[in-house]
Automatic annotation (TrEMBL), chain A:
It is an enzyme of class 7 (translocase). InterPro entries: NADH_UbQ_OxRdtase_chain4L/K, NUOK/Mnh_C1-like. Coiled coil: none annotated. It comes from Streptomyces curacoi. This is NADH-quinone oxidoreductase subunit K. GO terms for biological process: ATP synthesis coupled electron transport. GO terms for cellular component: NADH dehydrogenase complex; plasma membrane. NDH-1 is composed of 14 different subunits. Subunits NuoA, H, J, K, L, M, N constitute the membrane sector of the complex. It is found in: Cell membrane; Membrane. The chain crosses the membrane at residues 6-23, 28-48, 60-83. One of its GO terms (molecular function) is NADH dehydrogenase (quinone) (non-electrogenic) activity.
From TrEMBL, chain C:
This is NADH-quinone oxidoreductase subunit M. Belongs to the complex I subunit 4 family. Residues 139-443 form the NADH:quinone oxidoreductase/Mrp antiporter transmembrane domain. One of its GO terms (molecular function) is NADH dehydrogenase (quinone) (non-electrogenic) activity. InterPro entries: NADH_Q_OxRdtase_chainM/4, NADH_UbQ_OxRdtase, ND/Mrp_TM. Its EC number is 1.6.5.9.
Length: 99, 631, 523
């Protein structure tokens, strides 16, 4: 199979993820969309690795998975504590990032 | 002998320092310290005078170099003193009259709690005035020039709690500053022209400079002289200066400081001789002022202000003479010295009258005082006879020579100037007779003041009358002493030069004309103030009288043009500074602030909008990279 | 290697500042004495510089040079010429007096309060400022100079904003608002100036490849460094703008009246007498040496601006109602004289301008500090609130008058010498400018005497009738300064001897000679 098709899939997944981040309000969904984008990147990395015939891309993909796992831990903890204090998981409710 | 010159200045300077820094513990003896140091300076002056007399006429210039004052490249101002016949004359006048007035002040200021400070200021004045006449270059002269201005400021405003005195002091200083500006520019012009401003080099190189430059320098010197000597158009301060204590008026505003302008012109004779145009201006200023002062003197009811008008007028004579060039220099100085005697005497007499009359200055409230104050009456009377030019007294000799010299100028100018001088003599006789009659003759016109205390006119103590007597002796014999054998002429001639003009009139004709004027003036005054009683309240008077009472509207002019105009100018500038200059800056700040307010709205705190901008930015970067590839 | 005297003079107050700030809050008085001792020590070092300095010797003396930021060729280079020596002397001399005058200015408001009013901070900031000013007088590396030229804004900002004058007709709150306005305005003005200068500093490095003043000046003189006319002019303008803000020159002056009005009198003295002098000093040292041709090119415009400053400042001083503001505008007028003297490009003008910097420092210090004593007694800055003070406090009034007379340049007091030199120096090259500037002396008499008349003379007002005369501490501050004013007025030779050689060098930098007298020119 042509490896370029994997790149098309990765681009599609990334776009879905980005759109989700921008239009969904639920923090959990936003979070999952971010994961989707990360995995799209992983897919692209692995595909490139295959195309170029070296293992660098696959190793970076492992790193990305580790970072994603760590992010899930921290991110979920934040979302849970936000939900506890505000009884809502909407990101627009947490517009406290300005002075 | 040269080394004594600095001591002349040092003695009164020491007095000023000790008295002003010494504080209250010197209150008891301060006035005697001041008087002693003034007298010490006089004695040193006499020693130096004797030394000069012992030398031949061309050896009579002593110089003393103290130190280099301001040395910057070509600009070399030294602290060097020059004592020659001209400065010697002034030194004796200043220290002599000065010592007498110190003595007089001991009595006059007896009841003033700040007497020590008064003597400190008087000593300061002596030191500055001596510096002025002893300086060997124009910058050092400028030092003394402003120094006497300061002393005059301090002394006019001595009674600072009186707003009128404080205002008069400020006015005197400011008007003088305008004149000082002229002197400063003259020094700069000299430096730009000759590369120096020391007397010797400047005078010897006058021939190398263009007449235009010399005229400019001379006119600037004249401006300075006008300020210090209260000549038109800078005369307005002198009348107000009478707010100061009377000894101050006698010493500073009659005998010495106000004549500094004449000194300046005569000292700069070489420059003026090379600028005939400027000389003409000098004579015009002198002639106008001598009439101006005389007219003002006729209308004033305040005895000191009448005398101030007279001072202005007499200095006008001197300036006129100084403007005539070598024909007049010597007589300008001679009149200056005799005037120093009789005008100081007259002021001291006026002070004595005021002392006996509870500081009343309005002559309409005097009358018949000759019975109460015989010594004052006699000394004042002798001064009066001297100033109107009564034959044989000092004013007769000195003023007559000036009138002669004015005619000797020749041509139409000579006739006009001589005529003005003659007219001035008549008016002088009128206003001085008026002062005399209103003060010492007629019925007594004083009344109890609002507290019910009636003045008890009495003769002043000896410490005050002795100086008056000495000055009266000078007023009587000074002129004759100087004129017999042309002593004064021979003494000063080596410094100022002298030439006899060719007068269209003989000396006797001029003298006779002067006598006629004198008689007319006295008779007119007698007709108005002697024959009939003087009204206590001044009559409305003619237009001229009313204008003269207001100093011929000079102050009104100043007020409208300078004071009002200046106030408007400063006020609008303050406004402009706030709105325009500051406004531009504040406006810039405000627009930056507005811009940042608008930018701030982008930061709305919504995570998703930040995400949009991040994606947008990333997309832009990618697009830019692709575009660069494509190109 | 010899003892680094210049570094020591700057480091001592810097260390003193840290030490003073570290004194515990309760030991307030100890902190004051420590700061005073440090400032006196600095003065001793300044005297040592004066003694070691040889007027006839090399242009820059006591030089020190170390590599600092090698990548950009920035070096730690110090050296002093006569002009710098005079100004370091002035700075080190004034600081102890300023501290003594402001002895109680930063005390806690209510007695016995343990609340931390930063007394230590006040004195530490003054010392820090002193250190920075001194090092900017010493720096011969453009970048090093720039850093401290900018850094001195920091302590000054806090001194103005944090310790300002608490006298205000509408109470403490209004005073506080005005104070922060003044501090921010001061900071913004000077930051903008500094920013433009930074651009010019970088530009200079790009063109010249070095930050060293001596190297660049030498390369310019022997022709190995050529600058295009346009480049030189832009760089000159960048430098000059910053200095003109600091000096301040019309129309960049409006920060000064606010800053002086709102700060305490001692801080106001530091601003005009010391910090602003860095601006005029830098014009002489950097503008003229680095960009001689551009300086000559800009001279006509600068002279006109200086002339406007002189007359405009004086006229505005006449129109002020506030004592400190009046003195501020008078200073603007005087800075006009200094800048005029510098750009007249004559020996008299430049020597006069340097002397003027020193003398103006002394005379403003006297006038401003006494005005501060007066204001602290009555609690008002408005001229109209005073009257008849000379009757109740004759010594205060007398010393105030002397300060005023120095301000109006009376002969016998130091400012006369410098003002006359500036006028003569300007007149010989630009007669019309000299004549117009001379009007300034009449206006100076006007605003000074009006101030004296309205505050000190006339009948005694009820509010001032219980006013105490100068205290011993205050007299100790004022008397030596007055003695110095008189001494330098009668015998300025010690200072001119130091300054003249440096001025001669500067004149040769700009390839100018004094105009010949008309008489010699004709021959």
């Amino acid at each position: 199979m042509n490896p370029v098709n994997y790149l098309y899939l990765a681009a599609l997944l990334f776009t879905i993820g980005a759109t989700g981040v921008l239009i969904r309000r639920n923090a959990i969904v936003v979070f999952m969309c971010i994961e989707l984008m990360l995995n799209a990147c992983n897919l692209a990395l692995v595909a490139f690795s295959r195309m170029h015939g070296n293992l660098d891309g696959q190793i970076i993909a492992f790193f990305t998975m580790v970072v994603a796992a760590a992010e899930v831990v921290v991110g979920l903890a934040i979302i849970v504590s936000l939900f506890r204090s505000r009884h809502s998981a909407s990101v627009d409710d947490a517009s406290l990032m300005k002075l | 002998m040269e080394n004594l010159i600095a001591l002349l200045i040092a003695a009164p300077l020491l007095g000023a320092a000790v008295l002003l820094v010494g504080g209250r513990r010197l209150d008891a003896v301060g006035h005697w310290i001041g008087t002693a140091l003034a007298a010490a300076s006089f004695v040193i002056g006499l020693v130096l005078f004797a030394d000069l007399l012992g030398r031949s006429a061309d050896q009579r210039t002593l110089t003393q170099h103290l130190f280099s004052w301001i040395p910057v490249a070509g600009f070399q101002a030294d602290a060097t003193f020059r004592l020659d016949q001209l400065s010697m004359t002034f030194v004796l006048l200043i220290t002599g009259v000065g010592s007498l007035i110190h003595l007089y002040s001991v009595g006059y200021m007896e009841h003033d709690e700040r007497r020590r400070r008064f003597f400190g200021y008087l000593n300061l004045f002596l030191a500055a005035m001596l510096l002025l006449v002893l300086a060997d270059n124009y910058l050092l002269l400028y030092f003394g020039w402003e120094g006497v201005g300061l002393a005059s400021y301090l002394l006019i405003g001595f009674w600072q709690h009186k707003p009128a005195a404080a205002t008069a002091a400020k006015k005197a200083f400011l008007v003088n500053r305008v004149g000082d500006m002229g002197l400063a520019i003259a020094v700069m012009l000299m430096f730009a022209t000759f590369g120096t401003f020391a007397f010797g080099p400047v005078f010897s190189h006058v021939g190398d400079a263009s007449e235009g430059r010399l005229t400019a320098i001379a006119l600037m010197l004249l401006l300075a002289a006008c300020g210090k000597s209260a000549q038109v158009p800078l005369q307005s301060w002198l009348g107000d200066a009478m707010e100061g204590p009377t000894p101050v008026s006698a010493l500073i505003h009659a005998a010495t400081m106000v004549t500094a302008g004449v000194y300046l012109i005569v000292r700069s004779a070489a420059v003026f001789n090379g600028a005939p145009g400027a000389q003409l201006v000098v004579t015009v200023v002198g002639a106008v002022t001598l009439l101006f002062g005389a007219i003002v003197g006729c209308a004033k009811d305040d005895i000191k202000k009448a005398l101030a008008g007279s001072t202005m007028s007499q200095i006008g004579y001197m300036v006129l003479a100084a403007g005539l060039g070598p024909i007049g220099y010597v007589f300008a100085i001679m009149h200056l010295v005799t005037h120093g005697f009789f005008k100081a005497g007259l002021f001291l007499g006026a002070g004595s009258v005021m002392h006996g009359m509870n500081d009343e200055v309005d002559m309409r409230k005097y009358g018949g005082l000759r019975k109460y104050m015989p010594v004052t009456f006699i000394t004042f009377g002798l001064g009066y006879l001297a100033i109107i030019g009564f034959p044989g007294l000092s004013g007769f000799f000195s003023k007559d020579r000036i009138i002669e010299a004015a005619f000797a100028k020749g041509g139409t100018e000579g006739w006009i100037l001589g005529g003005a001088a003659l007219l001035g003599a008549a008016i002088t006789a009128f206003y001085m007779t008026r002062v005399m009659l209103m003060t010492f003759f007629g019925e007594k016109r004083w009344q109890p003041d609002e507290n019910g205390t009636e003045p008890h006119p009495h003769e002043s103590p000896g410490v005050m009358t002795i100086p008056m007597i000495v000055l009266a002796v000078g007023s009587v014999f000074g002129g004759a002493f100087f004129s017999i054998g042309d002593r004064f002429l021979h003494w000063l001639e080596p410094v100022t030069g002298h030439s006899e003009g060719n007068s269209p009139l003989s000396a006797w004709t001029v003298t006779a004309a002067t006598m006629v004027c004198l008689v007319i003036g006295v008779a007119a005054a007698w007709a108005q103030y002697g024959r009939k009683p003087v009204p206590v309240v001044a009559p409305r008077g003619s237009l001229l009288t009313r204008a003269a009472r207001r100093d011929l509207l000079q102050d009104d002019f100043n007020h409208v043009v300078l004071v009002r105009g200046g106030e408007h100018l400063t006020r609008s500038l303050v406004y402009l500074d706030h709105t325009l200059v500051d406004g531009v800056v504040n406006g810039t700040a405000a627009s930056v602030g507005g811009l940042s307010g608008r930018m701030r709205r982008l930061q709305n705190g919504f995570a998703r909008s930040y995400a949009v901008s991040m994606f947008g930015g990333a997309a832009l970067l990618v697009a830019a990279t692709l575009l660069m590839r494509a190109v | 290697m010899s003892f680094p005297l210049l570094t020591a003079t700057a480091v001592l107050p810097a260390v003193g500042a840290v030490a003073t700030a570290a004194v515990p809050a309760a030991r307030r008085t100890a902190a004051k004495w420590l700061a005073l001792a440090v400032s006196l020590g600095t003065f001793a070092l300044a005297v040592a510089i004066l003694v070691r300095f040889d007027p006839g010797g090399a242009r820059y003396q006591l030089t020190e040079s170390h590599s600092w930021i090698a990548a950009f060729g920035v070096r730690y280079e110090l050296g002093v010429d006569g002009i710098a020596v005079a100004l370091i002397g002035l700075t080190a001399l004034l600081v102890p007096f300023v501290m003594l005058a402001g002895w109680h200015d930063a005390d806690p408001l209510e007695t016995g309060s343990r609340r931390w009013r930063p007394t230590q901070g006040f004195f530490a900031l003054i010392l820090a400022l002193e250190a920075m000013v001194i090092i900017s007088f010493e720096a011969t590396d453009v970048f090093l100079f720039y850093i401290f030229f900018e850094a001195m804004l920091i302590p000054l900002y806090f001194l103005i904003g944090g310790f300002g004058d608490r006298a205000h007709e509408h109470g403490e709150k209004a005073a506080s608002t005005q104070r922060s306005y003044a501090a921010v305005k001061f900071l913004l003005y000077n930051l903008v100036g500094g920013l433009i200068m930074l651009a010019a500093v970088i530009g200079l490095y790009v063109v010249a490849g070095s930050f060293s003043l001596t190297e660049i000046a030498q390369a310019r003189a022997n022709g190995s460094l050529h600058m295009a006319t346009g480049v030189e002019r832009w760089l000159f303008l960048g430098f000059f703008f910053a200095f003109a803000v600091k000096a301040p020159l019309w129309p960049l002056h409006t920060w000064l009246p606010n800053a002086m009005q709102e700060s305490t009198a001692p801080v106001a003295v530091l601003i005009t007498a010391v910090v602003d002098k860095v601006g005029t000093f830098a014009m002489l040292r950097f503008c003229l040496q680095l960009f001689p041709e551009a300086s000559k090119w800009a001279t006509p415009v600068i002279l006109v601006l200086a002339l406007i400053s002189i007359i405009y400042g004086a006229l505005l001083a006449v129109g002020q109602r506030d004592i400190k503001r009046l003195i501020a505008y008078a200073s603007i007028s005087h800075f006009g004289f200094i800048i005029m003297g510098i750009f007249a490009m004559t020996s008299q003008g430049q020597s006069g301008a340097t002397l003027y910097m020193v003398n103006h420092g002394l005379s403003t210090a006297v006038l401003m500090l006494i005005a501060g004593f007066l204001i602290s007694r009555r609690g008002s800055r408005l001229i109209a609130d005073y009257g008849g003070v000379q009757k109740v406090a004759p010594v205060l009034a007398g010393t105030f008058l002397i300060g005023g007379l120095a301000t109006l340049s009376l002969p016998g007091l130091a400012p006369f010498v410098s003002e006359f030199l500036v006028l003569v120096g300007t007149f010989t090259r630009y007669p019309a400018v000299g004549v117009v500037a001379t009007f300034g002396i009449v206006l100076a008499a006007l605003y000074t005497l009006v101030l004296y008349q309205r505050t000190m003379t006339g009948p005694v007002r009820k509010e001032v009738s219980a006013m105490p005369d100068l205290r011993v501490r205050e007299l100790v501050v004022v008397a030596p300064l007055i003695v110095l004013l008189v001494f330098l007025g009668v015998y300025p030779k010690p200072v001119t001897d130091i300054v003249n050689p440096a001025v001669k060098q500067t004149m040769s930098d700009v390839h100018k000679t004094d105009p010949k007298p008309e008489m010699e020119a004709a021959k």
